[in-house]
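Predict fold of Heat-shock protein; 156 aa.
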Amino acid sequence: MRHFDLSPLYRSTVGFDRLFSMLDNVNGDQTSAYPPYNIERTGENAYRITMAVAGFSEDELTIEAKEHVLTVSGEKAPEPEDREVLYRGIASRAFERRFQIAEYVKVVGASMEHGLLHIDLVRELPETMKPRKIEIKTGQKDDVKQIEGSSATTAH
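Predicted 3D structure, encoded as tokens:
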């Protein structure tokens, strides 16, 4: 029996609560692990993606949400000619990371702190999709008389 590792599905989707919903929207072309990131649930309908983007400024990062894909990309500005780097341990290569987001999930903000890019998302269901409580009425005779009485007075 073969074992399939589905952990990459969890790393690139936000807002899906069920695995079967994710299977149709998997973006399997992501092989790079750069930059590292976390996805966390911060509330019942709130999520946060945190990416380690040390060395990038806000001007060098782009966040775009289009259809059901959130794209985060970064491109470093060219280094000055007069600067010679003897050893480069901090990655400064360009990147593009895509996340599949569920329907009704939208980006509400982004901030940068200590080399970490935080992207906040929230799932907002339209009123027609939210569960609603249906009142159950009893079939008492008083209710029937009231309905009959009100229709009789309007007929005259």
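The longest helix spans residues 141-155.
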